[in-house]
Structures are given as structure tokens and as C-alpha cells.
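Hey all, quick one. A colleague (J.T.) asked me to put the calcium ion job into the tracker so the inputs and the C-alpha cells live in one place instead of scattered across chat threads. No bug as far as I know, just bookkeeping. Sequence used:
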Amino acid sequence: MAHHAVSGRAEGRRVARKIIIDTDPGQDDALAILLALASGEALEVLGLTCVAGNVPLGLTTRNARRICELAGRRDVPVMAGCDRPMGRDLVTAEHVHGEDGLRGVDLPAPTMPLDSRHAVDFLIETLREAAPGTVTLVALAPLTNLATAFRRAPDIVARVADIVLMGGAHRALGNVTPVAEFNIHVDPQAADIVLCAGAPVTIVPLDVTHKALVTPARNAAFAALRTRVGQVAAALSRPTGRESARHGGLGAPLHDPCTIGWLLAPDLFAAREVNVMVETGSELTMGMTVMDWWGVTGRAANARVLHDIDADGFFDLLTAGLARL
Ligand code: BDR
Ligand code: CA
């Protein structure tokens, strides 16, 4: 497993890193997308590939376009992908994200059209057309689109620069079952395919995102931007009592934006290369990520796992990004 440099340089000039965001917006997905779109000098968003997850596909594609329009970025292609996991029924998370996936936030229906390409075709074509090692996949959702693309076109695996995915857990165990994190639990078969494919993988697990808590002060900092984006970010990330209670009353985790935080400011994180396997057989532990932290199995490392974050630094970065939109 070889990881490419986190930021690109050409002839001494910094070049924007090309990313595709695979997503199921989702209130935290929305903030991740906004941060990426606000970071044009560092990140070039080639497209948003949507998948069923937090809410069904019809809503994730709708929400992705609402967020692009909020950011004034109707030029970013938004594609619909897989509408269900590879081998299981879809499990959704309206209890976290609301019936519409964006907590009923006051955003108009999108007017930009969906791109006519299927998300899986877009992934395959984009990776084949780009120079090898120049496109990073940022996965914020069940990994169905990525795994389907790898199955259909194995040649693209070697062309991926990195897969930066929010999912799984080590010591934090689970958030949707006692031992499984939502994105991995919803489509464990897809996660297994992606982790075993051989592409470089960077995992942002619950161990990190549970340290990235939206406290009342951090939420107020979004609102204090006094912009439309700031108001929406505050509404999307306002901690609910239920989530906050799980974290000592301090606030609710902001999962998906940590992936973009890593791409923009890797110094805010600590990481370790380990072997990670996914449970795909047992209903009791379905989607558990088994991380060989101490190398006891002898299995080769297949992922870089982030395990710590400078949360204040991360929220400063996020707030400053939102302020640019
Ligand atoms: C993940 O699950 C989803 O509900 C969030 O959007 C995030 O991607 C956290 O477990
Ligand atoms: Ca998500």
C-alpha cells in the first residue's frame, strides 16, 4: 500500500488535488461538501456521486444539488448512483438527519439538473481518463458505488490516488450497532471489496469524529458568520440532546467533514498504518471493522487509520472555509 502525497505540487507551484466526493447528504455530508467547495486552491471537486444511505437515493441526489446551489456551484456535476447496498436491504438514518436528510433546513428545491451519467460510470470514466494517481475518492457514505465500480472495472483500482473514507471504528466500537459504524454496517460487502482492492485507503473512523464535537460555542461560530452558508451550517450542525448526551453533554460529532479536514491540514491528525478487515458474515457483529492495532495477525497493513485530531484547529479550519462561501 503506497500513499501519494497529501497535496500536489507541479514545478514548485501548488496544484489543486482532484477529488470525487461519494456521498449521501446527510447533514454532515453537506458540511463536508461545503468545506471542499470552499477550498478551491487546494481541492478541485470533479463531481459528487450520490448513493443511498442516510436517506434514499432520490433525496441524497436532491440534497447534493441543494448544497451545490447554496455554494453557488451549479457547475459541479451531481450523479445518481446505487439505490441499495450490494447484498442487503437499505438501512437509513432519518433519526439523525431528518425525513428529508437535511433536518428540514430552509433550502429551496434544486433547479440544477442531475447529470445524466450513472455515478459508477462517472467514477470509472474519470479514473480512466485522468493520469494515474491524480484522483482521490472521498467516501462519506456506504461504499456501494466505489465497490461496484471496482468490480466492474478492476483496472481503475491502480489509478486511484487515495480513498479517504469516513467509516468504521477501532476503540469507539459502533454507533448503529454496539460494534458497527453506520457507513460500513449499511454495506459491509462493499466495504470489504474496497478495503481488499489494493488501492491506498485512509480511514477516518468514529475514534476521530467522536473528538470533533460540535459544541454550542462551535455551532455559534457558524451562525456568527452572518452569511446564508453560516446560518445553514449552524442549523445543520445544531447538536440534538440525544446525540450530545452520548458524548457527555458536550456536543454531537461532526463526522464527514473530518475527511476534508485531513486533505486540507493533515498536521491536525495522527495516523497509523494497520490491517483492517470487515465482518460480513455474522449478523451480531455485521459491519464491524477489525483493526489489527498491535500487528498480532501478521496481516499486511491495508489502510492508514486516523486516530486523533486537533479539534480546535479543525473547527477553525471549517469555520474559515465556510466564511469564504
Ligand atoms: C456516518 O453515518 C452517516 O449517518 C453520516 O453521514 C456519516 O457519514 C457516521 O457514522
Ligand atoms: Ca455521510
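Adding what we noticed when we looked at it: The pocket of calcium ion (ligand 2) is lined by residues 24, 26, 28-29, 54, 140-141, 256 (CB under 6 Å). The mean pLDDT is 95.
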